[in-house]
Amino acid sequence: MTSHTHSKKLKDWVTKMAKLCEPDGIVWINGSEGERRQLEKECLESGELIQLNQEKLPGCFLHRTAKDDVARTEHLTYICTRKKHDAGPTNNWMSPRTAYAKAKEIFRGAMRGRTMYVIPFSMGPVGSPFSKIGVELTDSKYVVLNMLIMTRAGDAVLRQLEKEDHFTKCLHSKAELDINKRLILHFPEDNTIWSVGSGYGGNALLGKKCLSLRIASYLARRERWLAEHMLIMGIEEPNGHIEYIAAAFPSACGKTNLAMLIPPEGLKVKGYRIWTVGDDIAWMRVDSDGTLWAINPEAGFFGVAPGTNSKSNPMMVETIKKDTIYTNVVLKPDGTVWWEGADGPAPAEGIDWQGRPWKPGMTDAQGNPVLGAHPNSRFTAPIRNCPSASFRVEQHHGVPISAIIFGGRREHLAPLVYEAFNWQHGVFVAAAMASERTAAQFGKLGEVRRDPMAMLPFCGYNMADYFRHWLAMGKRMVKPPKIFHVNWFRTDESGKFLWPGFGENLRVLEWILDRCNNKVRAVGSPIGHIPFASDIDLTGLELVPGTLDKLLEVRKADWMEEIKGIKQFFKIFKKDLPEELWLEFESLNQRLKIYE
Ligand code: GTP
Ligand code: SPV
Ligand code: MN
Prior knowledge:
The chain is of the alpha/beta class. It folds into 3 domains: about 10-30 and about 75-225, Phosphoenolpyruvate Carboxykinase, domain 1, CATH 3.40.449; about 50-65 and about 300-385, Phosphoenolpyruvate Carboxykinase, domain 2 (Beta Complex), CATH 2.170.8; about 230-300 and about 395-595, Phosphoenolpyruvate Carboxykinase, domain 3 (Alpha-Beta Complex). β20 (about 330) and β21 (about 335-340) form a beta hairpin. The termini are far apart.
């Protein structure tokens, strides 16, 4: 083992963790093609992966997780700072001492009979000053194969690590995959992550939410940048100019879909083209030119399968035709895959996500339909497979951001789009945002919860300080991006979506860019600037007359109700909440009172 690295720090840590977990052997991941093939072969033998039809889906595999290991478990996720106050009222907290002690009991001997893999990985292009290096130790080959897609991993990173001698220590073991012995622990003060008892995505691929958001957000505040749950996309205008935007929506609320949308028929004549930079995480900093620049630290997509089809997301359908790991979807008799909302009809029969024979229309004992794919089933695919992947993905400098968009699922409240009056008001809009719960996390579906900046489950420190940091970042920019709020999910009386969404969302982005470039005026409202209906180009879109007005409506009664929820939420931060947010709250309250 000694020959693998000259970093004493890394060697000592690996030795120490191996002593705790007692693996049968240690393998250092170098990132080569041969190594990946070998791992795939071993996974096929152990049943961790099922090979899919290699003619139709070359390089693709299926994985099934344990039945109760299908989504992030936020109630088992902790921020472990010495002071409880530093984790803030929205995070689960444990003292580092207690957390290490508890987890040690589960990690002890957990890798017996297994190999421990050492994965050196870089979030962001290797060697870029904006990238961060981590090393994940794991006993899951599935995790290794996913990390090879989601991050830049292997020897090149190890060499870089040796230069910097600085990395996030990420320890992972699936242990018994027992939800009662599962902990996802973050130690920002030690630059360390310990995750045990889960093999699922966000719990186990530690470069993603754990490092790139929870640990990174903590570092970002100290180093004065932003680590956000945002997609990054470029919108190329007919003249060839590309405007980049970043957008934060909570999990399973449409980031991946927006990041690679196809312009709708009616707007095609305008010649827009979309470039995908990232679909989940953005790291943003103020450059010497006084504007905000963003990189996507990831190298792959870990996307939601249900609902993905050639109509909703043709770019993704193309992306996942090869080199893709599918998790918890239906296996068809021909060795291909299916999920609710996939292309084509459901197969007459197949194997469901739990490995049981499955037929469409099956119902359980209570008469509820049995889904073939888990609602949070996913695919892991490299960005380079995506036809709309931006040529900037590999550039360490990233892209300049013109607009920041926040959004969520709100059946009734939020209009299709509105613009914040200024940066401070935008921070208030984002801090007060809420969304209906989806299948991406354990819990009651549909329940509205506050999810500031779509970061509630991902902020590695006290969110009151996070809001303050956002306010401060605005002051550091010569021309801060404009801030918007969108809602693709407003419904009519019968519960049907009013807005067609997906590619059609470009119509809203067009308005947003027009606002950034001072091309259109807007209507004032208590919550922000609303579009004139005539400024949203609906060419080629058949909407029932009056729909756009319904989509843009700001209803006083609903908002009067909403601000009660905002107040309640803000109050949990007590005196820590920045004064500016209370000022914005009061102004909104006053504007609403006099609004007809
Ligand atoms: P995470 O990967 O969990 O962070 O999710 P995400 O924000 O990337 O969400 P994604 O794009 O995967 O979409 C999640 C679900 O929302 C899918 O089932 C989509 O079909 C659906 N969805 C996405 N965009 C739209 C839209 O514009 N309108 C409607 N009605 N549904 C959408
Ligand atoms: C999310 O839940 O926001 C995801 C999937 O993007 S996970 O990697 O599990 O966090
Ligand atoms: Mn996400």
